[in-house]
Each structure stands twice: as structure tokens, then as C-alpha cells.
Amino acid sequence: MATIPRSGPRGLPPRGEHHPAPASEKPARVSRAVVDCAVYINGHRQPGDISYRDALAQVRESGEGFVWVGLHSPDDSQMTDVGTTFGLHELVVEDAVHAHQRPKLEVYDDTQFLVLRTVQYVEHESMAMASEVVETGEIMVFAGPDFVITVRHGEHTELSGMRRNLESRPERLALGPTAVLHAVADKVVDSYLAVTDRMDVDVAAIEESVFSRQNRWLDIDPVYLLRREVLELRRAVTPLSTPLQTLTASGNPLVPKEVRRHLRDVADHLTTVIERVLEYDELLNSMLQAGAAKVGIQQTTDMRKISAWVAIAAVPTMVAGIYGMNFDHMPELHQPWGYPLVLGVLVATCVALFVVFRRSHWL
């Protein structure tokens, strides 16, 4: 956790003041990234559509409630305008625009910045036909004293349903912006659980394919694909444990006690997910080793068969080579029974070799 100071008593515009909108078309451009914006007082959403500038001014003039702004994939100029309005540090503004961040928690004065990686299970008929199992995205949450900003990257894990659910429980929203932060973390971790439940089926299918006696030939590519997807899920899930530990710490003054209790439940669910992912990783590693051994056995069996057929073919090749040397004085060369005799000896020898190799399980 990093704490970076900034100028001003809180690094935010003073109550009753907000930055005037420039005369350019910037507000119109920013509005395209805004999914929803509302003011919440005592957990209740205030009626009417309002811009985030006016919402922040209203909250700071009245000294009640907080603003919740939802953004989807803002660009540099859009996020810069939001950051200027809410007094966000330029470093977190940059992080909010450029996704692919590791899960982390940073504190800038009294504003908490939480990054979460989102995951979605990609439907597929079978692992042999799949090209991707897990699709990742990103959600960032800025939680200040009187505002919360959610920035979403990716087409999955939308937050409108979560917002409606929270609005139906005003007692939760009355806890303030950190209640939204908890709700987002809870939704993301629940999606982790859902993805791991679906991946159980894929892991079981791969395990059956690797260790089945009916499958003579093993396609090792699906095992490598699933292992790659598990590693991607692991990179999204495992780093989140440290931010949750910081948020649930008893000495954290920015998170109310009641919210910390709910966050501890989220941390417990995350622990379950991490244990599952580590179990998948170990299991797939074992399956890769078993698959490699099975492929080696298959190759050894193939080499035995090839060697056996080469040995059988060597007998007629050798005899044909001898009789192709065109010497005048050769045994049985001018005998009427010489040709059928040689053919009979060749057939008998090849059959005898075939029986020997068959009994030795080379054929």
C-alpha cells in the first residue's frame, strides 16, 4: 500500500466549489464514457439526471451523501477531466486509462484506489475445440470521503445490476463510498467462484482423457491450453489477497467497521478461490507429466512396430539382393523348383518373424 501526499487539506476542491466546464466539447466527450452518475443521501438515490460536476458540487454544498460515477473504458482526455474534477492524483488517472494492471490498493491521502481483475468463462463445446477458456478485464474503484468512481475495462462484469441491488438496500449504501467498494469486490470475487466451478468440468474432462485406457492416442494440446488459462486466472486472483488484507485491517481509518466485516467475508471467498486455482495448477502439472510419459510410451510402441516390420521386410530384401547379382553359378538357379522353393522359404521366414514379434507385443 502506497500513501502519496498532495497539495491542499484533502487534495479535493473545497466544498461549495467545483471546476467550471470548459467552453470546448470536452463535457460531451466525457459523457460518452459515463455509464451512470447519481447522488446518494442516507443510502437513497436522489431523483433526476445530473452531471458528475453538478453532483459533486451539490454534495459538498449540502455536506450530505456522496456521488457515485460509473465509467466504461475512458480515454486520456475523459479520465483527465474526471480526475481534475474530483482531485485525483495524476498517477492513478494514468492507471485508470491504461488497463492491464495487477490487483493492488493505493491510498492517496483520504482516497483509496483499488484495482481488480475481472474474469469470465468462455463457452466451448470441448477442450479440443477451445481456443480460450478465461477472458479477463479490469475494474478500478476510487473511494473518497464523498465520492466513489468505478472504471470498467472489458465487456463483461457490468455493474448496473449491482448498482440496482445496492439501491434496493439503502442501509448498505448509507455506510458511504466504501460500501460500493465492498460491493464491487464481492461481485468480482463471486465471479471468480463461478469461473472455477465451470473450470472443474474442464479439468475433469482433461483428467479423464489423460488417464483413460480407451484413448490410445493422447492430444496434449488441450492440457497446455487449460494450464495457460489457469495461470492467467492465477495472475488475476492471487495478488488481490494483499489489498483485501489491508482493507480489512482493524487500523484502517478509511473503512468503517461494518464494511470491514463484509470485506472479511470477501477475503474468505478469495482464499477459497486461490486454493482451487493452486489445486488446478498442481493437478494440471501432474497431468502434463503423465501426458508426456504417455506420449513417450506411444512413441516407443510405434518404434517397436516400425522396427518389427523393417526386420520382416529385410529377409525378402536380402534374398532378392543376393539373386539379383547375376552370377552364372548359383544354387538352384536353373532348377525348375528353385523359384517356388525360395518363395516358400521367404514366406515361412516372414511368418515366423511375425509370430515372434506378435508374441513379444511388438506388433
UniProtKB/TrEMBL annotation:
Subcellular location: Cell membrane
Ranges annotated as spanning the membrane: 306-325, 337-357
Family to which the UniProt record says this protein belongs: Belongs to the CorA metal ion transporter (MIT) (TC 1.A.35) family.
Catalysed reactions, semicolon-separated: Mg(2+)(in) = Mg(2+)(out)
Membrane protein topology class: Multi-pass membrane protein
Gene3D superfamilies assigned: CorA soluble domain-like, Magnesium transport protein CorA, transmembrane region
This protein's record includes keyword Membrane: yes
Region (Disordered): 1-29
Signal peptide: none
Keywords: Cell membrane, Ion transport, Magnesium, Membrane, Transmembrane, Transmembrane helix, Transport
Annotated Low complexity bias: 1-14
Reported function: Mediates influx of magnesium ions. Alternates between open and closed states. Activated by low cytoplasmic Mg(2+) levels. Inactive when cytoplasmic Mg(2+) levels are high.
Protein name listed in UniProt: Magnesium transporter CorA
GO cellular component, one term: plasma membrane
Organism superkingdom: Bacteria
The species this protein was found in: Gordonia namibiensis NBRC 108229
InterPro entries recorded: CorA_cytoplasmic_dom (IPR045861), CorA_TM1_TM2 (IPR045863), MgTranspt_CorA/ZnTranspt_ZntB (IPR002523)
Keyword Signal: no
Name of a matching Pfam family: CorA
Predominant cellular place of this UniProt entry's protein: membrane
Alphabetized GO MF terms: cobalt ion binding; cobalt ion transmembrane transporter activity; magnesium ion binding; magnesium ion transmembrane transporter activity
